[in-house]
Amino acid sequence: MVRLNEVGRLLCAAGVQFPYLDDPMVVELLTLREAVRWCLASGFLLMRFEGDAKVVIDKICRADVHDSRVGTILEEIMQIFRENPGFTVRFVGRENNRVAHMVARQALSLFPTTCRYFDFQNWLASRM
């Protein structure tokens, strides 16, 4: 998860691993659910979630919860979106989010088994 401000400046990133899961759709949805929960717990009222997993984003946008593998997770995410009209989700192809993808990978490599946050600006400055 990469958090940007309203002008697109990177603020922080987080990584989380889901050991023993090998279904990319389940992992993408669990990651989105964690991001949505974190935003709620942090008091955000306006958030745009972007992802490069088109099948996942399409399921959310169509409210398609009929997939037995992910129906419960989808329903929980969609309920949060219904209750928080300032939350939106959209598909962004990987070729258009290279920086976010790189930062999310870095966050995951720093904290492989838990979801923790790091100061992206300091991390980036240390590499320059």
From TrEMBL:
Domain called RNase H type-1: residue spans: 4-107
A molecular function GO annotation: RNA-DNA hybrid ribonuclease activity
Q: Which CDD domains match?
A: RNase_H_like
Highest taxon above the source species: Eukaryota
Q: What PANTHER family does the entry give?
A: BNAC02G40300D PROTEIN (PTHR47074), REVERSE TRANSCRIPTASE-LIKE PROTEIN (PTHR47074:SF11)
Q: What protein name is recorded for this chain?
A: RNase H type-1 domain-containing protein
Source organism lineage?
A: Eukaryota, Viridiplantae, Streptophyta, Embryophyta, Tracheophyta
